[in-house]
Prior knowledge:
About 50% of the residues lie in helices and about 10% in strands. It is mainly alpha-helical.
Amino acid sequence: MNQCYTTILIVLVSVLFTFCSEPKILNHENKSLILEKYKEKVREMFYHAYNSYIYNAYPYDELKPISCQGFDTWGSYSLTLIDALDMLVILGNRTEFERVSNLLEKTISFDKDINVSVFETNIRVIGGLISAHLLSYRLYIDKNSNELDVTKIKNLDPQWPCDGSLLRLAMKAADKILPAFDTPTGMPYGTVNLKYGVPKGETPITCVAGVGTFLIEFSALSRLSGDEKYEKAAMKAMDALWNHRSSINLVGNHINTVTGQWTGVDATIGSGVDSYFEYLVKAGIMLNKPELIEQFRTFQRAIDKYLLHDNWFFWANMNSGKKTLPLFSSLEAFYPGVLVLVGNLKQATKLVDNYHTVWRQYGGLPEFLNVQTKTIHNNREAYPLRPELIESLMYIIESQRHDLKYVEMAIDYVESIDRISRLDCGFATVSVL
């Protein structure tokens, strides 16, 4: 099962389950029935993918849905199980959640002689474990009770949220990637060996997202465990990126984590940079650090000045601001959601409307689109089931009081994904849209 697919379903379920419980949009009986239908459709889609993985690929990281075989991708963590844990909570499947949590506690080891991506291990393994840990209390709440004191919830670990098997696993994983942050700049290497630390001869060059996408998970670990080392490491990396921005307040896409020298000077909100901006805003909200949101606003003003063109964002030189490529990359679709979080709903809806037009044209978002020629760039026409657009749409729907225009977009995406990527053994990346 493609890992992006698990994430996209989590967001779709969050969107559609919210719609179905929101009376403001249920003015007509047929609308209520339609939304209930899609709520159940997404539930079925998840279990089709999940069961296909369990029966055909466990304990490997992922499922190859065409051949129905399992394979390891990011470190032999049974990654799909970790990625699906919070979805099991959302769906209220306490039995399976407890079974899988106990299984992971007994079987996962981070003491392996294997090189792993620091970035991917954080967002997928550590992030997946923390989110499942923090959401797990929902499975034990009496639906007929208004009790909000978690200390009185039956069957919940009495040490929650400051202890628990999933949290302990997340801390073990974080301890294994912390050596990557031991650089003169505080910016981490991109790869670490779980047993021996940073591999000998490892390149110090990594993308901006690989530096600035740790603060949410690492600060959560520090706040839950009481150990400041995680948050300090992530914050030092964030500070380093901020201090290495250009004189016109842009960042490139690749940097030398030892010297701080920029090795890729293309400024973009997409590939290689995207989640740095996302984490500035989300971590700023989560940690009540307005200085992080102000850093984002500084970048936002420069992005609008140098990259924005007709409600699209081009690439530009980080030092001169001169536009270099008229490209849209599918990873940019996270940006409207972040704009909603900082109160710029007008621009967010314009962007989502643009992206939906592309979706309608191709049946999905291609990896790269030349905005000027309206053609696929460099044969990058695959759709690997990325969740960014769906997440942005979720924020817009919530902020727009469930405007049916955007609800219908979500339904369109559900239908498209089911139509173009469903196989007998799960859901697959679409190589040619």
